Fold this sequence. Notes:
Order of helices and strands of chain B: EEEHEEHEHHHEHEHEEHH
Low-confidence stretches of chain B: none
Number of domains of chain B: 2
Helix content of chain B: 25-40%
Radius of gyration of chain A: 24 Å
Mean pLDDT of chain B: 92
Oligomer: heterodimer
Number of strands of chain B: 10
Distance between the termini of chain B: 33 Å
CATH architecture of the largest domain in chain B: 3-Layer(aba) Sandwich
Shape of chain A: globular
Low-confidence stretches of chain A: 204-208, 271-282
CATH superfamily of the largest domain in chain B: P-loop containing nucleotide triphosphate hydrolases
Number of helices of chain A: 23
CATH class of the largest domain in chain B: Alpha Beta
Largest sheet of chain B: 6 strands, mixed
Largest sheet of chain A: none
Amino acid sequence: MRELRLLLRLQRVNALRRNEIRHTSDRRQRRRLLWMLVLYVVLAAMGLFYATAISWGIYTAGLAAMLPGMAITLAAAATVMGTVIRAQGLLFDARGWEHLAPLPIHHSTVVWARLLDLYGSALGFCLMVMLPATVFYSMAEGLAALPVWLAIWLFTPLIPLGLGLVIAAGMAVLARRFRQRHLLVALLVLPVTAWLMLTLYTSPLSAAGGDAAMLDMMRSAGGAMSTAYPPANWAALAVQGSPGHLLLLACVSLGAAALAVAILLRWTPGQTGRQAAALAHGHAGRPLPPLWALVRKEWRRMLASPLYLMNTGMAVWLAPVMLLLLPLVKPDAVALLRGMPQVMSPLMRFLPLAACAFAGMSVPSAISLSMEGKNAWLMCTAPVSTGTLLGAKALFSFLFSLVPALLGAGLMAWHLRPGWATTLATLLLPVGLCAFLSVWGLVLDLRFARYDWESEQQIVKSSAQMGFGLLSGFVLMALMGAALWLAPARWAAQVAWALALVLMMAAAVLMRGLASRRVYQIE
Amino acid sequence: MQPILDIRGFSKSYDGKVMAVDNLSLTIEPGDIYGFIGKNGAGKTTTLRAAAGILRFDTGDMLVDGTSIKADPLACKRKIAYIPDNPDLYEFLTGRQYLDFVADLFEIAVDERGQRIEHYARALDLSDRLHDLISSYSHGMKQKLAMIGGFIHRPVLFLMDEPFVGLDPEAVVRVRQIIRDFCAQGSAVFFSTHVLEVAEKLCNKVAVIKDGRLVAAGATDQVRGQASLEEYFLEAMRDA
Lengths: 523, 240
């Protein structure tokens, strides 16, 4: 127990980088970390606000009974995804185990310490979703079920945590055999995630429309979630006063968690990394001009990092994959949608914005400089101009985001058949957004650059520039949405063209400013 | 003949507080194998990194083959090969991919790069491992790969920070020979080392630095006088 306590303390001492904030003598670094902390608080507040808004909406619609099921399903889905991503670095990365291997600590203690860390994070996130649901449910149904809710809070992360760990372990095993293992993992996870999201959100669409249809849709969505994830249904019944279902939830949750722990304890995660590294062989590739050699290097960098790939690649590819799967998951969805003029009219106005939705959530360039890490000296000594160095990063980020964005935009236009002006706007606006964010990301990374990181997590998941990059995407989307809303309906497409042009020009101006920097130096 | 490297009044501080190097001036001529010795934290790495274009510097200038690194850093970088003490290379690339990447940046023609890579990889006994990921390399292998990456573009100036640390004895002998060959053709090498025997045997010139200031610089025989370099160095650290 003592070793476990010490390991947990070690893992938590730098949570939210607070130990670095306390002890760094570099004022610029401290400022950067404090800004990041502020960003975390803002993002957590936004998440809580969003969850509260949804719970309030369901409560005011008189559907409070749906709250337990929906909250638990959403929390579980997010926990599975978060666990799969976090477990790669925390449990299946050999480097993280090398420091501890020579110490007199049992292997199982290290595993428990990491699992408890994962459980703690999962619980925190689940609470963000379930706390508002608990409050509004109690307002509607009284406080009698509160003790049951408290128990459900503790059990909710267990099944998805176990499932996420099993998936992550399977991916690590699969990954040992393939060179482009991270790409393979992304290709496996992406359609599954898209399918899940489509299943949850394509409820039966009523052609009648109106409030009654909306309520039916919400009930169907709630029903679909409970069907897709039975523990959500058990939890809903438990809060309604069924102790048997609470017991069932507890037993299955604890059983799933125990199974996942048993698998991990039998298998040494530390062995995976080195073996995978030794197995891989690469081809040299054909000679390229410096700019494209740098772009190729960026691509290889992305492929080599599951965190980087999943965090920046998953979001942008969700839209086109979902649109490709839509005819399989819900063949009549588009026809039903087209039969609802009260939905189609605003949808056509905002279609260009919808095409940008996922692209706005991905800014690979926001961390591309910092991702050089200890290799930054190679960029500093390379005989290429700053314009070429930064241009390559911006170009890679642009192409990486643009391909799925255009694919998604094209599929939207194909499904919904808007007029030529809206079609053009739907294709142009993502181009403008991707161009601007690719360069803006570099501006952010230059402002908050950090090269002395030890783990990619510090940059990919915990950096100020990544957070501000995402925030920038949201803010831009909101501003563009406002512009399209304020524009007269018949000119919406032209306004979208203008927005695209402004974004492209802004990108060009910013890039020119970056390229005019004398030399790329890190100190 | 103009110097390959002309350091003029170079000063560098960190955060405006710690003066890492103070008003250092030094010239390196074509053909020089110039050793740079000093205690830990004396300013050797700072000087080398500034010359390589990694660090900004507060005052002074550095000219590489007559070109100021402040005025035209790209022209200088085309002539320099920098080998750090800890060769942190792209672990997600294979050895060959890394060398091709360097060759692309330096725009080395396809047929030439193949020959050079093969030549130096064979010399340093790395041919069999070039198609493995760098993440599977030992420290010494990474060091060798970093050196090959420096050799293939035929630089005018080599800047090396503790180049022999981690190399096996055979590789040390081969690297020394390669360096001598380059210098015989007019290049120059400026490297830091803690191994004074190496500096004494290999270098025609040495510079000694203490607490950021140059204590001595010039021909090795002149600097050490009648004593060995080790004796001179220990004396210099006491007196300076």
